[in-house]
Amino acid sequence: MKKIVTYLFLVLAIPAVLSAQVKINEVLYATSGAQIELKNFGATSVDVSNWWLCALFRYTQISGMTVISGSLNIPAGGILALSGGSITLSSTASDLGLYTSNDFASSAAMEHFVQWGSAGQGRESVAVSKEIWTAGDFMPTVAQGHSIEYDADGDASTDWFDQANPTIGSENGVVTSIDDEGNNAVPDEFVLAQNYPNPFNPTTTILYTIAESSALTAVKVDVFNALGQKVRTLVNAQQSPGLHSVQWDAQDDAGRLVASGLYYYRLQAGVLTNTKRMVLLQ
């Protein structure tokens, strides 16, 4: 779980557009049978049957893997869950790259990449060449039975988090805090989760956590269009620590349906703020 240290005096930060339409969305590697989830973040369907996955210089074509759920022709906003194939995902240290062809040394063929355990794994250099990863960056390993999930907000190890309750085949879960006995606890960090579903039509849910404190926190959740203009205030209240959720029904503050396109939602809690993007499809 990553801590946000951006302060209130910052203006609305509009993240860069996702560099690829289909990305690795979740990896459950610390089991006898690895499972991999892909998500289509774009507005059109994508056939990935001829695409490849590569881990530690071992390769498998997606069409040769077992489909747990979803379709090889992933619809907009859809999820494909896979297992099997000829690759092995080490629970100690490995990489995983998603390719449109079997030209594994080509940055043009690579679509997405993640590595864990240590740096310099497998095709790290290809990901660095494509500018979707930084040399020496890696996601820490997670406990047996946990997965790593992507937050859809960038191309760094900090855009992945440890998920104690894997969600292979469905939308990624919210980051939660776990106490020493393994029970859900009041979170000690400020977290804004990716909305789900995304893309959506016409309603989507936004989850966020407010860090533990001795007092109520002033919280605002606003929606902005691609020009940075505010279209809706979803939350403007004092809230207690813990997990919260709010839905947006694609309407502005005047109750009018907004147009399809890219939108941003911003959470402000006390002196902290974070922004993520979402896509409305009408």
Tell me about this structure.
Helices cover 2% and strands 40% of the residues. It has 282 residues and is mostly beta strands. It folds into 2 domains: 22-173, no CATH class; 191-280, Sandwich (Immunoglobulin-like), CATH 2.60.40. A 6-stranded antiparallel sheet has the order 6-8-2-1-11-12, with no helix packed on it. The protein has a 4-stranded antiparallel sheet with strand order 5-4-9-10, with helices on one face. β20 and β21 form a beta hairpin. The radius of gyration is 19 Å and the shape is globular. The model is unreliable at 1-19 and 175-187 (pLDDT under 50).
Write the layout of secondary structure elements.
Layout: E1 22-28, E2 35-40, E3 46-47, E4 52-55, E5 58-61, E6 66-69, E7 73-74, E8 79-83, E9 94-99, E10 110-116, H1 124-130, E11 147-150, E12 160-163, E13 177-178, E14 184-185, E15 191-192, E16 204-210, E17 217-225, E18 230-239, E19 242-248, E20 261-269, E21 272-280
Antiparallel strand pairs: 1-2, 1-11, 2-8, 3-7, 4-5, 4-9, 6-8, 9-10, 11-12, 13-14, 15-16, 16-19, 17-18, 17-20, 20-21
Largest sheet at a glance?
6 strands, antiparallel
Strand order of the largest sheet: 6-8-2-1-11-12
Number of H/I helices: 1
Question: End-to-end span in angstroms?
Answer: 33 Å
What is the number of E strands?
21
Order of helices and strands: EEEEEEEEEEHEEEEEEEEEEE
Count of the separate structural domains: 2
Gist of the model:
The protein is an all-beta fold and 282 residues long. It has one helix at residues 124-130; strands spanning 22-28, 35-40, 46-47, 52-55, 58-61, 66-69, 73-74, 79-83, 94-99, 110-116, 147-150, 160-163, 177-178, 184-185, 191-192, 204-210, 217-225, 230-239, 242-248, 261-269, 272-280.
